[in-house]
Every structure is written in C-alpha cells, then in structure tokens.
Amino acid sequence: MARKRTVAFSRNAVNLFFHLLTRCNLNCHHCYINPAQHGNQTLPLETVRRWLAAFQARSHETNLVLLGGEPTLHPDLAPIIHLAREMDFGSVTVDTNGYLFNDILERVTPADLDYLSFSLDGPTPTVNDPLRGQGSFQACVDGIRKAVSRGFTTSLIYTVSRANIDHLDRMGPLLEDLGVERFFIQVIGLRGKSAGPPQALGAGSTGQVSREQWMQVVPRVAERIADAGLTVVYPKVFLAPGEAFACAGRVAENYFVFPNGRVYRCPLCEDYPLHSLVFEDDQLSATPKINEADLFELAIPEGCVMNRLVQPGNIDYGPDGQPLYPIACCLLKEEVRRT
User: Fold this and answer.
1) 19: part of which helix (H) or strand (E)?
2) C-alpha to C-alpha distance for 215 and 201, rounded to whole angstroms
3) By the 8 A CB rule, do 180 and 120 touch?
4) What CATH class is the domain 2-243+328-338?
5) Full-prediction pTM beyond 0.90?
C-alpha cells in the first residue's frame, strides 16, 4: 500500500538549482527558460567554481541540481560534477533531456552522481514528441536505458499539461520497464514559453489543467505508480479550505541561479527582474528593494502571492468574493511511496 506525506519545508536543508547555461538542443513548448531574463551565457568552469563557493558553508546540507538549458551540452559538466563532490555537496543531481552529449556517461561514474534525472512528457512518441521535439522520446528512453545499465540512479520528470494529463496513467509500465526509481510529476507554470501565446499545450489555453482534473488524476496515478515500488513526488498545488499556507521563501532555503548572475528564491518570479540576490564580480549580494523577498511577507487569502499575480486562473471564488481554497507554495510537495 502506498503512503502519502507532505514534505514540510526545513531550514536544515538547502536546495540549489544551478543553471550552467540556457542553450538547449530541444524547443519544448513549455520551457521555462527566458533568455531575456536569464541570459544566454555558458558559464566557464572557474566561474562555476567561484559561484558554488558562495554556498560552500552549508554544502554538506545542500542538494545541488545542475540544469540548463541542457546541461550535458556544457563541455565541462564532468569537471563541474567532480568539483561538486570535492566541495562536499550533500547530493548532486543532473537534469537532462536524455541526449547525454559530450559522452557524459563515460566521463562520470554512479559514485559521482546521486541522481541522473530525465525529462519525458508522454508514454509514447505520439504524446511526447509534439511537446518536446521529433525523436526526443526515443533519445530519452535510450539515454535512460544506457544510464541504468551502467548503474546510475535515475529519476524522471513529467510536466503535466492539458496535452498529456490523460496519458499520465500510462507512465507506470514504462517507468517499471526502464528501471526508473523516482517519478516527479510537475505542474505547468506560466513562465517562459508557457506565458506566451498558446501552442501545442492545449487548444485555446495556456496548457494548465483545472483543479478538478488535477485532483481527480494526479493523486490517484501517483499512488498506483508508488504501489509498484517507485517513489512519486508531485506539487501539492491546491490547499484544502482553511489549510495553513507557508511560503518557502520565508521558511526554507532554495536558490535558483542563472548564467547572467540572477539568483531567485521563488521560481514563479523568474520571468521578472525581481531576484533578491545577484552575483556581481563573483560575489553573492542582496539586490535593492523592491524584490521577491518583499512579496514573501504578504499574507493574502489566496495563499501564494506570485500565483495570484501571474496565474490567477487556477483560483476559484465564492459568491462572497473569497477564494474557495488557497494555492500552495509551488515548492510544497507530496511524496508517495510504498509502505
């Protein structure tokens, strides 16, 4: 039987999402990278070393996630991974689309990485490829099989939209066949391309699914897949009426680093120059007011302030004008695993 628990925010852990570059070989319809706000640089190895050093005081408590763009396009990804181990980061993950450029699996070992995390948005090429690019399903599946055969611990990320939520329940057999150990279900956010004109994510929409559809599909599928032995994690998204809201920006330490030096604490702020921190001359400094940190302090009935500002369509109101439920911090997760 699967058991679900809400993963509470903790000050004893740090999550560092480090974007080494913004370049990618794919052109996903829901990509959150925004070059106008995040830059188009590829960070040199020595810059990465100096920026990681800003977080080294608590490195042993820090979960480091190396991202892009596509991080395996970075020619020095292997040395960066080795550097992270030398700096005693608590865990090291690479998020990849599965093409695994620059012979990365030949240049690192399973001892160097805690997780190699792949992105796939459908159980078949017919579902996945219109969202992520022709041939991307097979490339990702081949990459996962190669990684598993070499002993790497793998996870998989599935971004739910109107275009693929009806296929989420078909992912279980594929995950078991591939030997993936952790399954992350993501909710699509109005960032990057998703904030622009509708494309393939759902006719006449931003691609976001309704509260009813999310609640009917995601928890049920998560429990069924967890019953097969995988750990499944998904964002809580919708709080129950009266359930307390907590903002990760106030009670946890999460950092989203981009190649142009911007460092955000909230991913919903990333399309805007609201970053609360910045690297200048390789030193991490606070930015002047007003920034995202000022928004974290606001208390509203809708819960997440940034959700209310940038994607209010997922909030329903009663006749009295009050929200029927609060929206959770996007970093609040539900974890389901077999007991």
Assistant:
1) strand 14-19
2) 19
3) no
4) alpha beta
5) yes
Kindly report the backbone phi and psi dihedral angles of residue 19, in degrees, each rounded to the nearest multiple of 5, phi listed first: -85, 110
Mean pLDDT of 171-190: 94
Rounded to whole angstroms, the Cα distance separating 211 from 57 reads 41
List alpha helices for the chain, DSSP H.
35-38, 45-53, 77-86, 104-107, 125-132, 136-149, 171-178, 211-227, 248-251, 292-296, 305-310
Domain extent listing, the chain? 2-243+328-338
What pLDDT does 203 receive? 43
Residues above pLDDT 70, as percent of the chain: 96
- Separation CA 218–CA 111 (nearest Å): 33
Supply 297's token pair. Answer: 């302090």
| Residue 8 CA to its chain's centroid (Å) | 17
The better pLDDT of the pair 9, 282 is held by 282
Cα 185 to chain centroid distance, Å, stands at 9
Amino acid 151 reads: G
**Could you count the other beta carbons within 10 Å of the beta carbon of residue 180?**
21
Question: Look-up: residue for tokens 């020619």?
Answer: 75
- Cα–Cα distance measured from residue 25 to residue 215, given in angstroms and rounded to the nearest whole number: 34
- End-to-end alpha carbon distance in the chain: 6
- Give the model confidence (pLDDT) of 230-246 as tens digits: 999 999 999 999 899 99
